[in-house]
Amino acid sequence: MTFRNQDLPALFHHTDRAAISRQRESTQATRAQLLLLVLAAAAAALPSGPGLGSVRLGGALSALAYAGVLLVGVRATRRRARPQWQLNRSAAEFIKSLAWRYAVHGAPFGPGPDDAGPKDAEQTYRARLESGLAELVKMGWEDPRAAGLVPQGGEITGAMRALRNLDYRARRETYVRDRLIEQRNWYRRRTEVSRRATSLWSWSIVLLTCLGLMFAALGAFGTGPAARLTGLVSAAATADIAWNEVRRHHPLIEAHTLVEQDLAAMMVVMQTTITEHQWPSAVYETERYVSPQHTDWLARHSN
């Protein structure tokens, strides 16, 4: 049996789409603000030229760019794009993780003495789901079921029940292949993307810093429009640094690498030494590795 994302509840799919949309909105707002700031510096660096009366073209463009920065910031604050992106991503990953744990008998839905038995596993799943989502609602998450965007009662899909009814070996093989290996490959791909982005932005910052140094040195001797160009290059370098920090490429490289290593080790253990009795806790531990909170903690504490 294969178990893919399309087999997860509709609530996950809606929340996942909302997270992607809000992430794109938040990223575009930050990018627009940084570009407008560089544009404002470029306009201010323009030599005095023709204007309309006492209004100079460069100064007017610079003022408009700064006004654009304020407008984009106000709109992003009102839309709460970044907080809603993070809340929807947390909700989506929580739903996905809980669904996998239920489907493959991960704790607390397994056969162990402290886990839910077959009769009350579904009830426990729904209770855990609602409890976790209620905490996110307290933090500002907007439950799409409350607005009628997702129908009630579809929290457990037929594919989840079908996978849960398989024997231990089939559940183990499906989980290792479609969840553990898939997640490990995802972290590997994201690490490579972050490495390429880090290299690109690092060289861009070095280049702009060298240009700033050159223009500053020329300005020290009063040669050409070095002062204006120094300000423009400094603004561009600052924007590059800010964008690199917003994307958090370097700390995510270390965090994703550590998670990938943990998943690779867990894959070997699950395929060799884990017994059926140990299976529920092993699944629970694996799901903890792939949680956004765990990745964020590793990124924050990376050297």
Give a description of the structure.
The structure is a single chain. The protein is mainly alpha-helical. The chain has a domain of 136 residues. Helix content is 74%, strand content 1%. It has a two-stranded antiparallel sheet. Strand 1 and strand 2 form a beta hairpin. Helix 3 runs antiparallel to helix 4 and helix 8 packs antiparallel against helix 9. The longest helix is centred in the middle third of the chain and has 53 residues. The protein is elongated. The chain starts with 9 loop residues before the first helix and ends with a helix.
SSE arrangement:
Layout lengths: L9 H35 L6 E2 L2 E2 H23 L1 H23 L17 H18 L19 H7 L3 H53 L5 H22 L1 H24 L6 H11 L2 H9 L3
Antiparallel strand pairs: 1-2
Number of helices: 10
Indicate the percent of residues in helices.
over 70%
Give Rg in angstroms. Answer: 26 Å
Strand order of the largest sheet: 1-2
SSE string, helices as H and strands as E:
HEEHHHHHHHHH
Which percent band covers the strand fraction?
Answer: under 5%
Silhouette: elongated
What class, by secondary structure content? mainly alpha
Total beta strands: 2
What is the rounded distance between the termini? 41 Å
Summed over residues and divided by their number, the pLDDT gives a mean of 88
**Low-confidence parts, pLDDT < 50 over ≥5 residues?**
none
Query: Major sheet: size, sense and barrel closure?
Result: 2 strands, antiparallel
